[in-house]
Amino acid sequence: MQQDRWGILYCPKGHNNKQRERIQKALDERQVQYDFVQSESTDSVERLVTMLIHNGYKTIVVVGGDSALNDAVNCLMKEEKQVRDQISLGVIPNGAMNDFARYWDFKEGNLEQTVDWLVKHRVRKIDLGCIRYQNKQGEQCHRYFLNCVNVGLIADVMNLRRQAHSLLGSRTLSFIASLFLMIFHRMEYKVKVKINYDTVERKIMTMCVGSGPGYGQTPSAVPYNGMLDVSLVYHTEIVQVFAGLWLLLTGRFLNHRSVHPYRTREVEVVEAKHALVGVDGRLIGTPVGSYSINVEQEVINFLIPD
C-alpha cells in the first residue's frame, strides 16, 4: 500500500450520487491517490473501516456524519496503539448531524475548501470520551465518543425521532414530530451522579457529558484538554423547556437558569432509573446499574484545517 494513498469511506444520504461525484472530482483535481468504498447501511461502517485499517491505509477519510465518525473511532480504538498512531482520521461532512466537523469549521456546503485542508494533512491528537456500562445481557461494554453522552430527555427525543423516521420517512418531519411528542413524554428522571467531589441526587430532565461541543449542550468543551464538560438540566416548566431550546439553537444554552455546568475528568452515574442513554446521537438503551464516563487524552490523530 502506498503510504500517501487515502481510504475514503462514503456514507450516502439517500440515493443521490451527485455528492460522491463532486468529492471524486475534487480529489482528482488535486491529484489525490485514493480508493473509495461505500457503506450499504449503518451496520457496515465498522466493517469497512476495519477493512481499511487492516489493508494498510494511513489516511482514512469518512464522508458522513457524527454517527459514522463514532463508528470509525471505535474501530481505531480496538487496534494496538502502535497501529493507531500511524493512522490519521479525516472527515468530509455528509450526515444528518455534523457537529464534530462543524466544530473544526468543516462545512457540508464547502467541499473544495474541506478537501484543500485535508490535502495539507495537518494532524492534531484529540481526546475521546468513554462510557463503561453493563447491558441487559449482563455483558460489560464500553463505547467511545467524540461529542457527547446524553442521559434522559435528549436521548428520549433521539428515540422518538428514530421511531418517527421509520413511519414518516422524512428526517425533517420526524424531528418536528419528535419535538411535538416530547410534550407528552416523561420529562424528569431521578438520578444520583458523582461529579468531582459533588454528589447530585435529585430529579433532572437531561444530562449531557461532552468531550466535544455536545450539540450545543456543552458549548465550552474542547476535544484536546483532557476534560469533560457536564451540563445537568434540572426539572423546569414546559414554557422554560422551549426557552431552553431557543438558547440551545442560539448557542447560549449555559445561560438557562435550569442548566448547571461542571468540568471534570470522570462522571459516575450511580443511579438513573428509566433514563435512556445516547452516544454521539445513537442510542445504547438503558444501562443496567451504575456506569461511568471518563476521558482518554490524545488518542486519535485527526486531520484539522490549516
Q: What is the rounded distance between the termini?
A: 27 Å
- Low-confidence segments, given as residue ranges, are none
Helical fraction:
25-40%
The amount of beta strand, in percent, is 25-35%
Residue-averaged pLDDT: 86
Structural class: alpha+beta
Listing every helix as H and every strand as E from the N terminus to the C terminus, the arrangement reads EHEHEHHEHHEEEHHEEEHEEEEE
The 3D shape can be described as elongated
Main sheet attributes: strand count, strand direction, barrel closure: 15 strands, mixed
Number of strands: 15
Radius of gyration: 19 Å
Counted by DSSP, the helix tally is 9
Characterise the protein shown here:
The protein is α+β, with helices and mostly antiparallel strands and 306 residues long. The protein has nine helices and 15 strands. The chain has a 15-stranded mixed beta sheet that branches. The protein starts with 5 loop residues before the first strand and ends with a strand.
